[in-house]
Design brief:
Rossmann fold; 8 strands; 4-stranded parallel β-sheet; about 15% strand; 2 domains; about 40% helix; elongated
Length: about 210
């Protein structure tokens, strides 16, 4: 890793960052706190944030990486002491992906629909994970179908409809009033903890995948 100058972003676990930085140093690389002109690789916990955007726009072409890049290079040091971790094929294998470290739950899609299957497949393809429910402790984002509408007359649904629902569209999934109210109550509660987003956010995130390259 002697040709790598690494910076980190998005990590809350300082112990992990210190460990990764130590591995970089032990493999001959350098670490920078700031994203300066010398940085060649940005290791990101999640493919988002100011440093990631800056890395994508810089003229020096800083590559945004998953932490697995460092871990894998460290694992190969014994079997191949002359291994170059900046080799293109190895770098491409460990590039950061747009949904890494995200745990997503979809609301308002028919359970067995092809659309929901495709959305879930895209999450996995881009290194994300799927929450089991709105109560899943891993949950980071809730995505609501634009075609899912609230039950008319429900005050709970009315309060959050601007956030999650395009009321001009027809519903694709029908709920009883009690179930719909319970679901929206759960959405209201979870919105204090994680973003509750329209499907448009999902597609725009995929369109912006270039920021992780």
């Amino acid at each position: 890793m002697s040709r790598a100058v690494v910076s980190f972003t998005g990590f809350r676990d300082r112990v992990l960052v210190n460990r990764l930085a130590s591995l970089v140093h032990w493999m001959g690389g350098s670490v920078r706190r700031r994203l300066d002109a010398d940085v060649t690789h940005l290791v990101a916990y999640r493919c988002a944030g100011e440093k990631v955007r800056k890395a994508a726009l810089t003229s020096t072409n800083i590559t945004t990486m998953n932490a697995s890049w460092i871990e894998s290079a460290w694992g190969l040091r014994t079997s191949n002491p002359f291994f170059d971790s900046t080799e293109v094929e190895f770098v491409n294998k460990h590039r950061a992906k747009v949904f890494q470290s995200c745990c997503i739950f979809f609301v308002g899609f028919p359970v067995h629909s092809q659309t929901l299957k495709e959305l879930r497949d895209l999450v996995r393809e881009h290194n994300g994970s799927l929450a089991k429910s709105l109560c899943d402790e891993r949950l980071t984002h809730v995505i609501v179908s634009d075609e899912w509408t609230a039950t008319p007359g429900s005050p709970v649904l009315k309060d959050i409809s601007d956030l999650i629902v395009n009321s001009a569209n027809a519903a694709v999934q029908e709920f009883s009033t009690d179930v719909a109210q319970q679901l929206c109550s759960e959405l209201r509660e979870v919105s204090f903890r994680v973003p509750v987003l329209r499907l448009d956010w999902f597609w725009k995130s995929l369109q912006c995948t270039y920021i992780c390259h």
